[in-house]
Amino acid sequence: MACVGGLCIGNIGVLAHIGAMIGIGVLHLPIRDFQYFHIDARRREFVAAGMSCGMAVAFGAVIGGTLFGFEVTQPNTYWQFTSMWRTFLTSTLAVVVYSFFVDLWCLGSRGWLLSTSVLRFDSITIAMPTFESIITSIVIGSVCGLIGSVWIIGNTYINMFRKVHINRQLTKCLEVLVLSLVTTTMFYWLPFWA
Questions:
Q1: pLDDT bracket for residue 121 (50, 70, 90)
Q2: Quick one: which of 88, 92, 49 has its CA closest to 72?
Q3: Is the pLDDT of residue 149 over 50?
Q4: Count of CB atoms situated within 10 Å of the CB of 23
Q5: What's 122-165 look like in SS3?
Q6: 78 and 31 within one domain
Q7: What confidence tens digit (pLDDT) does each residue in 32-51 have?
Q8: Is 44:86 a contact under the CB 8 Å cutoff?
Q9: Dihedral angle of Cα 47, 53, 58, 63, to the nearest 10 degrees
Q10: Do 38 and 44 contact (CB within 8 A), yes or no?
């Protein structure tokens, strides 16, 4: 609904959530042997695999999707090494199926299996990076690393403040209301101003 409404949320979170919902929805198909998967660890693995598929399709990055699923679910004890390979396989299949349907969609205008999909079947030419691109990448990486460090420090202090001062039910409800109001207001007004 947020994408249809035109909110500037990107496709990462949306596709990750859709993938997770499809992953858990598959368990409820009326298939007799799926009772094996109805334990908590397997359910979580299906959610992680679905979320990773959504992320992999969003970027066309199978390894990135798998690592995203690992990163998000890493604090849980159910994640094992076999879960990584299962998630990698499902992410790979998701990207291949997605690219197949994109090629099928573009069949009439561009031909079969051209460079319209995430997977590139035509010849790939890789240009050597220039000195300017290397310097630019180092500067962007350094600036983003510093911004991330400042964000983590600020987030730590905000959470310490919340732990001390926002500890009653009324203040917790007011916090949610204020943050929701600020977020929705900014999502509406920022594109209007821009």
A1: very low
A2: 49
A3: yes
A4: 23
A5: CCCCCCCCCHHHHHHHHHHHHHHHHHHHHHHHHHHHHHHHHHHH
A6: yes
A7: 777 777 777 788 888 888 88
A8: no
A9: 120
A10: no
- Using the predicted structure, report yes or no on whether residue 2 has a pLDDT greater than 60: no
**Domain span holding position 139:** 132-194
The residue among 77, 99, 126 that closes a domain is: 126
18 and 43 both lie in a single domain = yes
Asked whether 22 and 52 are in contact (CB, 8 A), the reply is: no
| 70 within 8 A of 51, measured Cβ to Cβ | no
Which amino acid does the sequence have at 104? L
Residue 118 Cα to chain centre, angstroms: 17
**Within its chain, how far is the Cα of 174 from the centroid?**
29
Cα 49 from Cα 13, distance rounded (Å): 15
Using the predicted structure, report yes or no on whether residue 106 has a pLDDT greater than 60. yes
Backbone angles phi, psi at 56, to 5 degrees: -65, -40
Query: What are the pLDDT digits (tens) for 8-35?
Result: 666 677 788 888 888 888 888 887 777 7
Using CA atoms, how far residue 74 sits from 4, 19, 60, 79, 179, in Å, is 32, 18, 22, 7, 28
What pLDDT band is residue 159 in, cutting at 50, 70 and 90? confident
